[in-house]
Amino acid sequence: MRRIIESSIRIFFVATLVLASFSLSNVAQAQAACDPAAACFDVSFPQANMTGDFYLNGKMVGQNVNSARLVGTPNANNVVEAKNIKDTANEGFGDLYNYPDQSLTMWGWQGYATPLVLYLYRNYVKGKLIITVASWYGDNIVADLFLDGAQVGTQTAKVELNVKEGAHTVEAKNITDPKIVGKFQYSNISQPAWVYAGAYPSYAALYPNRTSLVGTLYLYCELLNKQYTDNAKCLVKEGDKELGSIENYSTGSYLLSIGKHNVTVSATGAAANKWKSTTLSNIEIFGDSYVSQNAILEYVPGAAAAPSAGGAAPAGGGVTINSSNVDRVVLADYMMWYDHSTFDGNKTWDVPRDGPYNSDDEGIIRKHVAQAQQACLNGFVAHWYSPADGRTTNNFNKLLNASGGTPLRNAVLVQANILPGASEGSMMDAVRYVMSNWINHPNYLKLGGKPVIFFTDMPRPWGEAGSVAAWNRIRAAVDPGHNTIWMAEGLYPTYNPPLDGLYVYRIDHKDYPQSWLKQARWASQLKQAAQLNNTYFYFADTIAAGFDDTKSVNAPGDLRTDQPHFARDRQGGQYYRDTYNSALYTGGDFLLVKSFNEWIEGTEIEPGKTYSDLYMNLTCEFANGYRNK
Questions:
Q1: Mind listing the pLDDT tens digit for each residue in 105-122?
Q2: Do 182 and 258 form a contact (C-beta atoms < 8 A)?
Q3: Are 547 and 508 in contact (CB under 8 A)?
Q4: At a CB cut-off of 8 Å and minimum separation 6, what does 536 contact?
Q5: What is the DSSP letter of 352?
Q6: Does CATH number 3.30.750 belong to domain 2-123?
Q7: Top-tier CATH class for 125-211
Q8: What sign does the CA torsion over 137, 140, 142, 146 have?
Q9: Domain 330-627 adopts which CATH fold?
Q10: Do 596 and 368 contact (CB within 8 A), yes or no?
Q11: What are the residue ranges spanned by the domains of the chain?
């Protein structure tokens, strides 16, 4: 009975040790049997790399060891101590933290070994400070880093230090970006930092001011009347320094120092003598900004004149003939599915000047026809779902009828492939419907006598891998003789052939601003594809008054491909003019305006509450300039 009571007392005592403020535990096992006439204590640290000096009743028993057996007085209190505790394997010991000496009074049970594992709390005497230098612009900068006036890092972006608690001063000097030497200058920066002693680091992030030393020159170059067989491209020089070369119908970019520059552009290659050189004088470069210039080299043998954006055409859209011998028309995208709720202020950044409307209203459609002529357009590209969608089908019929007696000629943009359940069969049915019901209407758009049909979201619904083969099957089944012109949407001639042309619907993107500057490149790639296929592909230039689809999240039933929402400031019409200027020298066949009334994406030129007729008038100016260039 006595043994049972003693055993219970011992179990209670050891369990109590686990909860003691000294953080002692009965995890360890006795090393060996204890002398029956003594009391034993098996003392250890929990980690093998920890050592210390163990004492029993004031006498050192083990020095610089991880564990020890202490033999003490039985049936009496014994004082167990650990001093000079070390943890050399862990970074920061002795500098960032240490362990205080430990002392514990323990009862010695005669003949028994009491296991004691010392779980110690770190005593932090310093805190970790992480100093970083970074750029708001994403530059990969490095610097000499300082703490309280002393240099702690050389040409680095980050240092980690153990620092005493309290207020400090951090600095970054001699800041550079090794990958962009000479492009920017960074100012030295100094700021306070407070450090707390403990396990959690404090941070000091330094973001220096940046001054740009250079700007970008975007230079578009065109060799007038260049043939595919001509070995020539544009050579760009400033004084005797060669900046680079540019392929015909392409744009090059050059970093130039702030100030005014004179750039000479000439032809280079075996056929270089066919073109005169030109000098662009006093090009002013501003820091961290861009300037766009066009170099049009005159063809010497034919004395061809450089194209001009000037001239005028009758309001309502007189046309001229372009290099592909078809009308140089100007068209605007037209949406046919609005109702009054579209313009409640929750889905669009602006609303129509004359109030909300319903796209089914024939009076509204006639009004839009009149406004198209006011904007000097040649017609609309109407976004149409499929024969199964009665609303857009009926509204396009109304548009053709309302255009009767006017010079407007309208085409459809087929969107059957983006509808739920779309298939090759539904696409074939949609195109056959267009060809059977609309293309022979006198107000349907024809170029060179061929009706034009637009398509969008080319990979849908098949995906990138199978879409080209699917379009080949659709073309072969519906119009193998290419009696109509099919325009594909995209940046690259992936679908040319089987389609006959290319246009870019969205010429700006949240992550790629000013993408419209690449139109000459897209057109050039299409021309190369045509040469490889021994045919002609049509390229449609695109301009846009702006973009803002940030409220489109509130529009139900959005069928568009998922892309980041964003907005572009119209800048009182300057954004529109910039996109127009980029389209002047691509060699494109006709012009698309994004858009007449795409209010959800904020590209509309239709009169709005905010800007009234401004973009209608600008469109007329641009349309006339484009047709007469």
A1: 999 999 999 999 998 888
A2: no
A3: yes
A4: 324, 530
A5: B
A6: no
A7: mainly beta
A8: positive
A9: TIM Barrel (3.20.20)
A10: yes
A11: 2-123, 125-211, 213-297, 330-627
Look at the block and give the residue holding tokens 């119209």. Answer: 570
Q: Reading across the β-sheet that carries 126-133, which strands appear in turn?
A: 158-164, 126-133, 202-206
What is the band of 441 on the pLDDT scale with cuts at 50, 70, 90?
Answer: very high
The whole-angstrom separation of Cα 462 and Cα 205 is 48
- Distance, CA of 267 to CA of 246 (rounded, Å): 10
CB 66 within 8 A of CB 48: yes
The fold adopted by the segment(s) 213-297 is: Immunoglobulin-like (2.60.40)
Q: What is the CB-side half-sphere exposure of residue 519 using CA atoms within 13 A?
A: 29
User: From residue 112, how far is each of 24, 59, 62 by CA, in Å?
Assistant: 18, 21, 20
At 624, list the tokens: 């006339």
| Cβ proximity of 323 and 296 under 8 Å | no
Q: Is the dihedral of CA 26, 30, 35, 41 positive or negative?
A: negative
Helix (H, G, I), strand (E, B) or coil at 120: coil
CA 449 vs CA 435, 439, 440, 485: distances in Å: 14, 11, 11, 10
Instruction: Tell me which residue has tokens 């087929």.
Output: 414
Calpha distance 444→424 (Å, rounded): 25
Question: How many angstroms separate the CA atoms of 344 and 364, rounded?
Answer: 18
> Whole-angstrom Cα distance, residue 361 to residue 15?
86
Q: Report the chain's terminal Cα–Cα distance, integer Å.
A: 114
Residue located via tokens 């009743």: 57
Instruction: Note the pLDDT tens digit of each residue in 148-190.
Output: 999 999 999 999 999 999 999 999 999 998 887 778 889 999 9
Q: Which residues of 595-625 are buried (b: 16+ CB within 10 A; e: fewer)?
A: bbbbbbbbbbbbbbeebebbbbebbbbbbbb
Give me the pLDDT at residue 554, please. 57
Per-residue burial over 488-523, b = 16 or more CB atoms within 10 Å of its CB, e = otherwise? bbbeebbbbbbbbbbbbbbbbeeeeebbbbbbbbbb
Give Cβ neighbours of residue 465 (< 8 Å, ≥ 6 apart).
Answer: none
pLDDT of 265-323, one tens digit each? 999 999 999 999 999 999 998 887 778 788 889 888 643 333 333 333 333 444 444 55
Residues 6+ apart with CB under 8 A from 395: 336, 337, 359, 360, 365, 382
Which of the four pLDDT bands, split at 50, 70 and 90, describes residue 250?
A: confident
Closest by Cα among 206, 181, 211, 174 to 192: 206
* DSSP string for residues in 455-492: E--TTTTT-HHHHHHHHHHHHHHH-TT--SEEEEESSS
What is the length of the chain? Answer: 629
Overall average pLDDT of the 38-67 stretch: 94
Q: Is the pLDDT of residue 468 over 70?
A: yes
How many whole angstroms separate alpha carbon 47 and alpha carbon 68?
Answer: 14
- Which of 560, 548, 562, 556 lies closest to 599, judged by CA? 548
Q: What percent of the chain has pLDDT over 90?
A: 52
Q: Encode 561-588 in three state secondary structure.
A: CCCCCCEECCHHHHHHHHHHHHCCCCCC
Strand-pairing partners, residue 184, are: 212
Q: What angle is formed at CA 23 by the lines to CA 21 and CA 26, rounded to 5 degrees?
A: 125
| CATH fold match for the domains 125-211 and 330-627 | no
Q: CA-to-CA distance for 588 and 624, rounded, in angstroms?
A: 15
